[in-house]
Write a structure and sequence with these properties.
The chain has 173 residues and is mainly alpha-helical. Helix content is 69%, strand content 0%. It contains four helices and no strands. The chain starts with 16 loop residues before the first helix and ends in a 10-residue tail after the last helix.
Length: 173
């Protein structure tokens, strides 16, 4: 078992599972946005973030998406670095957050942006059904991995804190 998934039961600085999860969820969402924008918007040229106007507006919307994803990535890494500096990073929660961020962004994009708001489709001129299924199933798998890792991290955290003497309630005598 890798060290990343071991419970954070060592003595020393206080671990911060929620902040670790949140910082890495932000990083995960930014990474998925970057992969989407770079591969599907730029390399393949299948769509822009906003395709319901001119090409210039589509390119502008891609630039705004890139700006947002870079800001999210920088903010997430600053939060991550602060947790590491203070030795408060809960690694298992961080990995859970990363996968939750990956899957959440992808599902949000596939369901809200593609279907509800119709900002863009994955691809034009073809039957989008297989693309939609692949996109949303991949997002769901990433999200479920994140949920499984979060549940596992929470269980190990509870088990680790129960085994520490300071976490036990004072007994008689």
């Amino acid at each position: 078992m890798s060290e990343s998934f071991r419970p954070d039961t060592t003595s020393g600085p206080h671990r911060e599972p929620r902040k670790s999860l949140a910082a890495c969820a932000l990083i995960g969402a930014a990474v998925t946005a970057a992969v989407d924008a770079i591969i599907f918007h730029q390399i393949l040229g299948w769509h822009h973030f906003y395709d319901r106007s001119t090409t210039s507006v589509g390119l502008l919307s891609d630039g705004l998406l890139h700006s947002a994803e870079v800001l999210a990535l920088v903010a997430g890494f600053f939060l991550y670095a602060d947790l590491r500096r203070r030795q408060a990073l809960a690694r298992a929660h961080a990995w859970a957050g990363f996968f939750l961020g990956l899957g959440s962004f992808q599902l949000f994009d596939g369901i809200v942006n593609h279907k509800l708001l119709r900002l863009h489709q994955i691809r034009y001129g073809v039957d989008v059904t297989p693309y939609d299924w692949a996109w949303n199933i991949a997002g769901l798998i990433l999200l479920l991995i994140g949920v499984a890792l979060a549940v596992r991290a929470a269980r190990r955290n509870r088990a680790g804190s129960a085994s520490r003497p300071s976490a036990r309630p004072p007994g008689p005598g």
